[in-house]
Amino acid sequence: MSDVVQVDVTLLGRQFTIGTPSDERATLEQAVRLLADKIDTIQAGGRVMDADKVAIMAALNIAHDLLKVKVGDGGLEMATIQRKIHSMSEAADQALSASQQKLF
Fold first, then answer.
1. In angstroms, how far is CA 93 from the centroid of its own chain?
2. Interatomic CA distance for residues 53 and 5, integer angstroms
3. Distance of CA 74 to CAs 66, 81, 87, Å?
4. Among 5, 27, 46, 55, which one has the highest count of C-beta atoms within 10 angstroms of its own C-beta?
5. pTM of the predicted model as reported, rounded to 2 decimal places
6. Which DSSP symbol is given to 72?
7. Element (H, E) at 48
């Protein structure tokens, strides 16, 4: 089990302290940069909006981008890719196990 670290984050001029497992700190920092970039893009549009509205729009943009994630021409969704990887991993484990049994 990893230690929990406190990460200070500033978004839209407000500071937040977020607890995260130490081995996930880098991922949290990437998420903060992604959100900050979306916020900057929205604010660069020139329309004056309340901070709450900017945050909601940025979150919706990120959620929309996540739902659109597709890979290759076949349009495989991430869940399908994860299932296929898991199946391939199991097949590889079985093949390795069978080849090791033949050796001994």
1. 28
2. 29
3. 17, 11, 18
4. 55
5. 0.63
6. T
7. none
Q: Are strands 14-21 and 4-11 parallel, antiparallel or unpaired?
A: antiparallel
Helix, strand or coil for residue 75? coil
Reading the block at residue 41, the tokens are 């893009």
The low-confidence residues of the chain, meaning pLDDT below 70, are: 1, 70-76, 78, 99-104
Closest listed residue to residue 84, CA positions, set 76, 72, 74: 76
Nearest to 29 by CA among 14, 48, 16: 16
In total, the chain counts a number of residues equal to 104
Joined together, the tokens standing for residue 29 give: 């920092």
Under 8 Å between Cβ of 51 and 12: yes
1-13, pLDDT tens digit by residue?
579 999 999 999 9
Task: Name the residue type at position 46.
Answer: G
Residue 24, pLDDT score: 92
